[in-house]
């Protein structure tokens, strides 16, 4: 089975073209994404034909679970599809069918190469049942959690997948995300588990972010996690409409005017191609 490894700001994926055939994708994802015995990646992403959009995506995390969407993964998929002529932009845009919605991506090219993708992540959802989170407030901002004997306040939002964001007064580098991340991910308040981000607002146009991704652990970058940090920061009045989110793997730009869709912009890069034995 042919695959292509790609990354968006260090958030890496194995791209596989599929016609929709049934395979044990969960087991394949665990094997292929293993960083010691496999090709190594945060997730396995399938590029499929679609009746509703230019292409369709399915994503499997490195633990075999299937999330709704990945901002970095979709941007990689769009670059792959356009450069391999599997999708042709219409007025500069490509549509992508995900589990929860049809997304639209604006494609920037130079000499037939995709240099950047600006992806509409859809409207953020704040109702607790839509995140979902077992909370009796809307929006869910400053929601108290008890985690490993510690009291923290998180702000929750769905960016097509569930997120909880903790805002820190100090640098994100010092936060023990490797200890706390999996505890928040599986906290009883989140019936479908959750992506947990820690964020430090530098000024109204810059945020430092680290994200523990549901089913993958901490990644070098998380597109939807950056969107969640920016959106909840804006709800708290801490940032403006356009923010550079800085992560271990690089910088992604998030835009939100407080009402419409959230937009995520950043690079996507090829790493290598390979064959996985049947």
Concise summary:
The protein is an alpha+beta fold.
How would you describe this protein?
By secondary structure, the protein is of the alpha+beta class. The protein has four helices and 17 strands. It has a 17-stranded mixed beta sheet that branches. Strand 6 (102-110) and strand 7 form a beta hairpin. It is globular. The termini are close together. The model has no long low-confidence stretch (mean pLDDT 97).
The overall average pLDDT, rounded, is 97
Integer tally of domains? 2
Write down how many β-strands occur, each being a DSSP E stretch of 2 or more residues: 17
Largest β sheet strand count, sense and barrel closure: 17 strands, mixed
Order of helices and strands: EEHEEHEEEEEEHEEEHEEEE
Question: C-alpha Rg, in Å?
Answer: 18 Å
Report, as a whole number of angstroms, the end-to-end distance: 7 Å
How helix-rich are the residues, as a percent range? 10-25%
- And the CATH topology of the largest domain? Diaminopimelate Epimerase, Chain A, domain 1
| Overall form | globular
Task: Please name the CATH architecture of the largest domain.
Answer: Roll
CATH superfamily of the largest domain: Diaminopimelate Epimerase, Chain A, domain 1
């Amino acid at each position: 089975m042919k695959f292509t490894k790609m990354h968006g700001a260090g958030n890496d994926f194995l791209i596989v073209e599929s016609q929709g055939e049934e395979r044990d994708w969960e087991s394949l994802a665990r094997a292929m994404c293993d960083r010691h015995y496999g090709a190594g990646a945060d997730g396995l992403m399938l590029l499929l034909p679609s009746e509703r959009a230019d292409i369709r995506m399915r994503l499997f995390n490195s633990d075999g679970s299937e999330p709704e969407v990945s901002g970095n993964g979709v941007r990689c998929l769009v670059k792959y599809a356009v450069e391999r002529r599997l999708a042709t932009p219409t007025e500069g845009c490509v549509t992508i069918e995900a589990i929860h919605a049809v997304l639209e991506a604006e494609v920037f090219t130079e000499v037939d190469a995709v240099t950047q993708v600006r992806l509409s992540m859809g409207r953020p959802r704040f109702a607790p049942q839509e995140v979902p989170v077992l909370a009796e407030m809307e929006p869910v901002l400053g929601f108290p959690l008890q985690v490993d004997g510690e009291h923290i306040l998180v702000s929750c939002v769905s960016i097509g997948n569930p997120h909880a964001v903790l805002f820190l007064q100090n640098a994100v580098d010092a936060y023990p995300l490797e200890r706390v991340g999996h505890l928040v991910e599986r906290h009883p308040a989140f019936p479908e588990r959750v992506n947990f981000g820690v964020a430090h607002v530098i000024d109204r146009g810059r945020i430092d972010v680290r994200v523990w991704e549901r089913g993958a652990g901490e990644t070098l970058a998380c597109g939807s996690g950056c969107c969640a940090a920016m959106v909840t920061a804006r709800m708290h009045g801490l940032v403006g409409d356009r923010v550079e989110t800085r992560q271990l793997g690089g910088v992604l730009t998030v835009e939100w005017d407080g009402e419409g869709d959230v937009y995520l912009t950043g690079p996507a890069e090829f790493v290598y191609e390979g064959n996985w034995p049947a």
